[in-house]
Structures are given as C-alpha cells and as structure tokens.
C-alpha cells in the first residue's frame, strides 16, 4: 500500500471523526497523541507506538458516539479543526517512529517510505524543529528522489547434483544357499508298508547298498499267483498243441473238414497268447517284488530321512534324499526382476559363507530361470569349483552379484530423474549451472534410459556438470542461482 495514500487517509479520517465527535471529545483524543509524542521524545519507541494505537482507537470510538442534541455547528467545526491538527501531528510522528525503529531491519520498506511524495515535506518540518536529534526513537533520513528505489532481484537457492559416470561395476548383495551338485530324492515304485530303513541322516553308503525295504508279503503272494497261472497256461498250451497235431493228421486223410482244423488252430493260438501273458505277469510280479527294496544309485550320503518303519507309503513319494560324495556343490539364489536383466551367464561372482568363518570363494553363474517362481524374483544357479571352504548342503551365504550395464555403452552419465524436463520442441532438457557465474543454461540431452531413480544421459553433458534437480518448472534459462550444498557423490551403489 502507498504511504501517500495512508497519509491522505489519516487526514480525511481525522477530519471526519473530529466533525462527528466535536471539540471536547477531540481534546480527549489529543491528550493520547500528546502522550505518544512525549514518549517518542523520551526515546521510548514502544510506548510511542502504543500511544499512537490508542489515539487511533480513541478517535474512532469518540467520533462514532452519538453527540448530545445541544451540540451546535460551532462545536463540530472546532472538533474538525482539532482532528485535522491531530492528523498533522500523527503524520509527522509516524514516519519518524517507523524509520527509527521498525524499519531499521527492513531496508526495502524504509526505501519505499522515503520515496513517498509527502515524506519530503515531513522530513523538512522534522529537521526544522530538530525532532530527529532530540530523540533516539525518531529518525528522518533524507528523502529519496522519485518513487522507491528498485528492489534487487532475489537470487533463488536450488538443489543440484553433479553428472557422474555410470559404470558397469555395480554390486548387489543377495542371499543364497549351498546344495550338492548330484542330489536326488529316492522313492519306492510300489505301494506298501515300510519294513525297515537301514540308513540315517548323514550316513554314507556305497552304490548298490540297501537303503530301505517294504513288507514283501503281499508281493510274494502275487508272484506265486502268477506262477500258478503260468503252470495252468502251459498245460492248456500243451493240450491245444496235441489236439492240433491230431486234427492235422485226420485232415490230411480227409477225415475232418478244413473248418474244424481252423477252429483247432484258433484254440492253439489263444493258448499261446495266454501263456505269453502268464510269462509277462511273472516278470511284472518279480519286478514289483524287486522294487520293494530301495538301493543306492551311487556312492553318497543321506541328506534327509522322510519315513520310518511301519509307515505306509505310496509309490513315487520320496522316502530319502541323498547326495553324492565328492560330486561338488552349487549355489541357488533368487534375484529380483530389476537385477536379473543385468546378469550374464558365465560371469564370476564372489560369495561369503554366513557360518561365522567368513570364508570367501568364487562361483560362476550357470543358469537363469526363464520365469519367476514367486514374487521374490527369478531363480539362478551358480557352480562352485575348487572352493577351499568346507561346504555343506544347506549352508547360507551372501553373493555379491556384479551387475552388467543394462543400457549399452560405457560413456553414460547419471543424474537424478527429477533433473530431466520434457520440452515439446527440444525434447529432453536439463538446467546446467554455469561454473563461472552460477547462471542456468537450458541444454538438450539424449536420454539412454533410467536405472533406479537415475536418468542415464549419453550426450549433452560432461562429467562433473552441475544440474538443477528440483523445482525446474519454476526456473528460466539465463537465471542466476545459488547452490545448496547437497550434491550426490555416487549413484550406482
């Protein structure tokens, strides 16, 4: 608000309120204004400002109270004159108090007041009566020519970051587990009740050793039934063969018809088929009997024992888990989808055991799953070769995966994605801070991709260039700025 308008408002309001209140009421208000002036001369700036506030309130209250009916026109004119005189005193007092106290720490406001049109005459009157020299609470510096001096442009402070090379040596540590390279769950191929288990967890065995057996009572009965069926089939086959030989001799003599001979031939063929079926039945029964004994397929040890004697098991259900001796180990892990695209088959990665020994060895990435097995990510397998650590199946470890550059090229620079602005004409741009004068320069850049909150720039910036990272929609090309000391030192860790 213009101070010229404020001074004019004080004059008009005082004149109007003085006419409404009359001489006596304005005289009461004049006492408060005089008290404010005395406080200012005594150097009590706070009391003086409070006195001015009370004077304004008294003017409003006394002026708005209804006048007695006996008040004449002379009283109103006298009140208006006294109100106008008080306005002059207030206008003389107010700038001195503001410039001597409140505006000492507000140079912009002080310049605005000193540039007001009516401040010149006010300062001249104050100097003529030496108001400023009589009190430390009042100050009347020389007026400024014309309007208030132009305000110096505010230099904004911005957040920034330096463009840093984005290499292909990023590391991501993930948990994994050791397991034997040659391992297998063993199961019976027939249903039955377990009669005995000859090994326990951790026990070693040799190829061909009996590991577990089923109760063979029912299987032996089935084998005996098949053998009996074979004896019957052999007898019927011999009988059919003799009958065919007889009928063949009679047919040769012309005693029997050809149709009868064909019937006998069909009976012989059927007997032969039943004999073959009986033979296959014995083989099947014998195989089932053999399958009731679980033997070791290779030298190894027991990783898990899943059944106990007298327990009934179904065919195909694992009863033991075994692993080979000296067959080596491998590592399994699950990696998130943000990492799997940056892994390469055949690359080597460091692994450290979490058993307290902190033994470290190198593993080679062998397999990457084609699809995720859970929300955790994709399964991967690493081969272990000649590890000096004492590895055991089930051990936990941490794998330091070396991630490849997923965007191609080795000259990429990384900056926060917030620094990138999309422009319809220039495409992607950033505000680069000129190193010499801290002036913003809007420059186009080529965006190669993003990686974990970073924008990867292939052209348009040099390593170490500083770019604005926040509030870029409010910045302008050529604008001078101040840098907040919050640069990011490294992005790919």
UniProtKB/TrEMBL annotation:
Q: Which residues cross the membrane?
A: 45-65, 77-103
What is a GO molecular function of this protein? efflux transmembrane transporter activity
Family annotation (Gene3D superfamilies): 2.40.30.170, 2.40.420.20, 2.40.50.100, Helix hairpin bin
Q: Which UniProt keywords apply?
A: Membrane, Transmembrane, Transmembrane helix
Domain Multidrug resistance protein MdtA-like C-terminal permuted SH3 span(s) in chain numbering: 413-472
One cellular-component annotation, GO: efflux pump complex
Q: Which family does it belong to?
A: Belongs to the membrane fusion protein (MFP) (TC 8.A.1) family.
Q: Which NCBIfam families match?
A: RND_mfp
Protein name as it appears in the record: MdtA_1 protein
UniProt organism field: Jannaschia aquimarina
Q: Gene encoding this chain?
A: mdtA_1
């Amino acid at each position: 608000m213009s101070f010229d308008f404020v001074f004019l408002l004080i004059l008009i309001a005082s004149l109007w309120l003085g006419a409404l209140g009359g001489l006596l009421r304005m005289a009461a208000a004049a006492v408060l204004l005089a008290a404010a002036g005395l406080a200012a001369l005594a150097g009590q700036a706070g009391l003086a400002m409070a006195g001015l506030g009370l004077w304004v309130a008294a003017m409003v209250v006394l002026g708005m109270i209804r006048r007695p009916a006996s008040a004449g026109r002379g009283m109103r004119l006298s009140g208006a004159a006294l109100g106008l005189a008080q306005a002059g005193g207030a206008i003389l007092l107010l700038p001195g108090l503001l410039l001597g106290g409140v505006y000492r720490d507000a140079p912009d406001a002080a310049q605005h007041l000193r540039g007001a049109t009516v401040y010149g005459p006010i300062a001249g009157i104050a100097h003529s009566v030496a108001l400023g020299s009589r009190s430390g609470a009042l100050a009347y510096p020389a007026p400024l020519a014309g309007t208030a001096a132009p305000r110096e442009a505010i230099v904004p402070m911005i957040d920034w970051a330096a463009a840093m090379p984005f290499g292909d040596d990023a590391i991501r540590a993930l948990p994994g587990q050791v397991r034997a390279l040659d391992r297998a769950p063993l199961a019976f191929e027939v249903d039955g009740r377990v009669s005995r288990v000859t090994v326990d967890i951790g026990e070693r065995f040799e190829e061909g050793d009996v590991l577990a057996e089923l109760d063979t009572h029912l299987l032996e009965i089935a084998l005996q039934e098949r053998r009996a069926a074979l004896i019957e089939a052999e007898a019927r086959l011999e009988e059919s063969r003799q009958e065919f030989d007889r009928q063949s001799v009679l047919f040769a003599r012309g005693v029997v018809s050809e149709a009868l001979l064909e019937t006998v031939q069909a009976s012989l063929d059927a007997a032969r088929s039943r004999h073959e079926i009986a033979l296959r039945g014995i083989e099947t029964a014998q195989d089932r009997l053999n399958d009731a004994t679980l033997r070791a397929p290779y030298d190894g040890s027991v990783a898990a024992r899943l059944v106990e004697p007298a327990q009934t098991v179904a065919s195909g259900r694992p009863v033991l888990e075994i692993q080979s001796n000296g067959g080596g180990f491998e590592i399994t892990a699950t990696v998130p989808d943000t990492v799997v695209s940056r892994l390469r088959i055949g690359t080597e990665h460091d692994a450290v055991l979490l058993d307290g020994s902190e033994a470290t060895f190198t593993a080679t990435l062998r397999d990457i799953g084609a699809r995720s097995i859970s929300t955790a990510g994709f399964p991967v397998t690493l081969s272990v070769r000649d590890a000096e650590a004492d590895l055991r199946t089930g051990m936990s470890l941490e794998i330091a995966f070396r991630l490849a550059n997923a965007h191609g090229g080795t000259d990429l620079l990384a900056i926060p994605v917030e620094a990138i602005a999309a422009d319809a004409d220039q495409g992607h741009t950033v505000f680069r801070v000129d190193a010499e004068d801290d002036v913003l320069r809007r420059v186009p850049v080529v965006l190669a991709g993003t990686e974990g909150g970073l924008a990867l720039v292939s052209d348009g910036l040099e390593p170490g260039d500083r770019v604005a990272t926040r509030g870029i929609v409010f910045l302008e090309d050529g604008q001078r700025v101040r840098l907040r000391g919050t640069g990011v030192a490294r992005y790919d860790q």
